[in-house]
Structures are given as structure tokens and as C-alpha cells.
Amino acid sequence: MKWPTWGQWYQRVLGLIALSCMIWALSAVSACVSVPVPATDLVSKGREIFFNETFNGNGRTCGTCHPAQNNLVLDPAFIATLPPTDPLFVAEFNPDLKKNFENPKLMRQFGLILENLDGFDDLENKFVMRGVPHVLAQRTSVNSNQGPRTGWSGDGAPGDGSLRSFATGAVIQHFTKTLNRVSGVDFRLPTEEELDAIEAFMLSLGRQQDLTLPLPLKGIVAKRGQDIFLDNQLGKCNLCHVNAGATANFGAGNIGNANFNTGVEDLPDQPADLTGEKNPPDDGFGRPGDGTFNTPPLVEAADSGPFFHNNAIETIEGAVAFYDGKAFNNSPAGRALAAADPNQVGIELDGTQIVAIAAFLRVLNALENIRQSLELLESGAKTSFGERAEDRERIKRAVSETQDSIKVLENGGLHPDAVTHLLKAKESAEKAHSSLFRRRALVQQAVDELRNARTQLIEVS
């Protein structure tokens, strides 16, 4: 028998070591995937509750109407992808909720959810149909001089109006097994600890501070849109959306998140009305309502449509154009703007100006998508091998944010050079999501392409 040489022994030992490492690594990955990561902080606990806790109700969670994979909003395109057994459709398969709980036709066609904001004493007649607002940038969006503003009309929470109360109200309205809505029977109410965790999670979502406009944008059309947005004699957008956020600086100065009657309810040919389905007018804030609705942040607007409380407008361009129309300019808010204008004019914009403002909002949204993608990927690059399952989830979310930025720019015909970099970033991140040994390198490639895309949109110091 011929004995192996020293070199051959050395190669065999190296091979055995490599094989052992691979077996160990695969078992470690398997363990990471199958064993849930414990919630060690309030935000993590809140995330778990938000997306998985049913509160012993009809199967819905907060994430049913605020799905993570769809910018925390509902729209008809996303709804169409859901299986018929999804808890969103509980009114279609639970006999106790078949009537006066949802309108499946308006939900599926227009993403509208039934709300009993004026109480549960007359379910047949006292309800409104509303879209689902995203819950991003809550830390900068809900505070006002009169207290928290939640939901489309600013009174989406019972009690003190806080985000904690918002969660309680959501359970009572949307999670119930029957229309009796008896706590302990139809659902259980969140505990104080759960409310703390949900609030912490919601406050962690999206931007933690407002922008400071103007930004050094590169696109000619978006740059012009920013100028119009900030011009208090032309676009006048910044009066009610300071720095494209949800705070107002109109009339009494900076008043935080504010309610206005902008005439959205007076729009003709509202899609839900055209169906012939029962769709009572939405009276807005209060019981009974005063016709006002609160101001949403605009940085996240372009990829979270349809727009307004009733999902009446499909595109960001259409939403901007609304403010040039009769419904707005004849509304109390429109008349107030005209009264404060030296020429007694509300908002008058031409088509190219409307497109420019929309382009500005699209670029803002894409920049926010890129910021979030970078944050997710760069934080994931610092994790250890044992945190791989958590890292994969971050990468998955980064892919989703990157896809949103691509869609927002492409749908506006903006910055094809940036879109090219974003497509490459998405491809690298997708590969990183499924890669075992090249993850860090692929993540870095995605990060580099995201930064390249950002430099096409804005001057980076």
C-alpha cells in the first residue's frame, strides 16, 4: 500500500475541517430559522404584538390592515393577492359578522374599511367607509396643540386620543367575533404592558424627525416642484405641510398636526358612490363631526396611495391636482387660504406645475425609501452569524423598500439613471437574502448601488 505524502495528508485534513465547518454552519442556520428570536426590548415586543396578536378575536391583527409588505397600508392591488381565508375577509366567512361589519365590495374594489366613529348604537346607518392610513413617521405626525391626532379625522382613538388608545379602539372596532363587541367574550383588550409595546413599535416606524427643506435636489422638474411647494403665494403647500410633514404653520403659527375641511367630501363622482353601495357622508372630527380631517405627512405619500380619507384619488398627481379644483377652493380651508392671500386667490396651478409638485413628492419618497433600505442593510452587516434569521428579515424589508423606490420613480418617469442603480441594488440584496457565505459582500454591493442612486437624486456632501 502506498502511503499518502505529507501534502496529500494536509489537503485531506483541510477538507475534513471544511466539511465539519459546513455541517456546523448548516445546523446553526437551521437552528436560527426554527427557533424564534426572543423579544428583548419594547419595540421588538411591540412588533410581535402588532403583526401576530389576535387578542382572542376574529383572527385579525394590526398587521391585517397595516401589512408590513405593503407600506403598512391597504390598496385594491394588494388585497387582490390575499387568499379568501385571510382574516381581512372575515365578514365573508363568519356569519356573525356578515352584516354591518364590513362592505366586502367596497373593500375589494377600493380598499375601504367600515368604521363606526360615532358609536355602535345604530350599525345600519352610523358608519363611514375609509381608507387605511399608513402609520409611518408617527413620532413627528400625531402631536398637536389640542392633543394627539390619530386616524384620518384626528379622533381615531377613544379616550385620550393617544396611540395607546388607538390600539384599544382598533381591537374593539375590527377584532370582534360578533357585533355585540363584549370584552372578554368577543375579544380581550390589550394589557397596559402590551399597549406600551405597541406604542413603542409604532413610534419606531419610519422617520424619527422631519426634513429641513429645501433639499439640494438634482432633477430639474422635482427642483421646480420643491420651489412651488415652498412658495406661500403659489403652491402654498408648506403652510399646512411644513417641510412636507404633518404639521401646519398657518393662521395661528405652528400648531402641530391640524384638522381642516378641504372639501374632499364634496368631490363629484367619488368611486365608492358610483357603485350604488350605501356610503354615508363622512362627517370627520368629533361626534357629530365638524367636517374636518387631519393632515398626513407627505414624505411617504407617493407609495402609500390611494389618497385622502375615502381613497377618492388614485395617483399622487391626481392628489396634487385636487387642490387646484373647485372642491378645495370652495371649501373652508380653500377660502381661508384665499382670504390670507394679497390677491384673494386660493390655489391656482397649471398642469406642468401640478406634475412638478408630484415629481418633488416622488423624489422625497424615493429618498426616504433609500434611507430606510440603507439603514436596514447597514445594521444587518453588523450582526453576528447567530443572528442570521433576523438579518434575513432586514434584507427582505430592504428589498421591499428598494422596490418601492423603483416604482415611485418609474411611475413618474423620473431619474432613469437612479432606477438603474436601484435595480442593481435590489438584485444584490435578493441574492444576499438567500446567500450563506457571500451575504456580507452582496449586502455591500447593494449598499454601494443605493448610494449611487441617491447621488443621482440629490447633492450628497
Strand content: under 5%
CATH homology group of the largest domain: IL-4 antagonist (De novo design) like domain
**CATH architecture annotation of the largest domain:** Up-down Bundle
Strand count, sense and barrel status of the largest sheet are: 2 strands, antiparallel
How many strand segments?
6
Judging from the principal axes of the Cα atoms, what is the shape?
globular
Report the C-alpha radius of gyration, rounded.
25 Å
- Termini Cα gap: 70 Å
The level of helicity is 40-55%
| Succession of helices and strands | HHHHHHEEHHHHEEEHEHHHHHHH
The domain tally reads 2
Please, how many helices? 18
Q: In terms of per-residue confidence, which ranges show pLDDT below 50 for 5 or more consecutive residues? A: 1-39
Q: Which class best fits the helix and strand makeup?
A: mainly alpha
Spatial sequence of strands, sheet with the most strands:
1-2
Question: Could you report the average pLDDT, rounded to the nearest whole number?
Answer: 90
CATH class of the largest domain: Mainly Alpha
The CATH topology annotation of the largest domain reads as: Four Helix Bundle (Hemerythrin (Met), subunit A)
